[in-house]
TrEMBL record:
Residues 37-56 bind DNA. The keyword Transcription regulation applies. SUPFAM superfamilies: Homeodomain-like, Tetracyclin repressor-like, C-terminal domain. Pfam families: TetR_C_11, TetR_N. This is TetR family transcriptional regulator. GO terms for molecular function: DNA-binding transcription factor activity; transcription cis-regulatory region binding. Keywords: DNA-binding, Transcription, Transcription regulation. The lineage of its organism: Bacteria, Bacillati, Actinomycetota, Actinomycetes, Propionibacteriales. Residues 14-74 form the HTH tetR-type domain. It comes from Kribbella steppae.
Length: 200
């Protein structure tokens, strides 16, 4: 839970706050988290550092606020297409999904810092990941209710398999996250695994 001091930070007037957040996302995508500084964001946003510090007390606070609210990184809408396959495609290939350029470039800029910066990790998990994980749980819970997932399947493990495979391809193998790759993982990994022992 955020502290009272964080919840009641003074907002930046007018559209300046959005401009600063957009500039922050662009700097993260370009430089990564480690090389990002308040100076760099202030320069990109044509704002003063004092303005930034009045609203965001730390770099982690600014960056997570920015990526959580950025135009290119929206939380995918909760859709119910009537099938697990349809839900996963809608969630993964639309705005804010794996194939959107900005989310993947932003995550690439953060990934090296997440495992060694506790403040960034906590803020990222609570404010960026949490709503996306909640949506994923709903998708898989509906699939369970529809009988699309066999009783012997580890649903918790299955629900993180698609992003794990996509992230591995993008950041380890250097394979871009395309709609075709997402469909291949869904059709060749997720759906067969969802059938569990019924598939044999």
């Amino acid at each position: 839970m955020e502290s009272a001091s964080v919840r009641h930070r003074p907002r930046v007037e007018g559209g300046r706050e959005e401009e600063i957040l957009d500039a922050t996302v662009a700097v993260v995508a370009e430089l990564g988290y480690d090389r990002l500084t308040m100076d760099a964001v202030a320069t990109a946003a044509k704002a003063s550092k004092a303005t930034l510090y009045r609203r965001w007390t730390t770099k982690a606070d600014l960056v997570v606020d920015a990526i959580s609210r950025a135009k290119g990184c929206p939380v995918p809408e909760d859709v119910d297409t009537g099938s697990l396959r349809g839900d996963l495609i809608s969630m993964s290939c639309g705005d804010g999904g794996f194939t959107a350029e900005m989310p993947m470039s932003v995550i690439a800029g953060l990934v090296t810092a997440l495992h060694r910066d506790p403040e960034l990790q906590t803020a990222f998990q609570e404010r960026f990941l949490a709503p996306r994980l909640d949506l994923t749980r709903k998708v898989y819970q509906r699939a369970v209710a529809r009988g699309e997932i066999a009783p012997d399947v580890d649903v918790e493990l299955l629900s993180v398999t698609l992003p794990a495979v996509i992230v591995h391809h993008a950041y380890i193998l250097g394979v871009p996250a395309t709609d075709d790759l997402v469909l291949r993982v869904i059709d060749n990994v997720i759906l067969p695994a969802a059938r569990g022992s019924q598939a044999s």
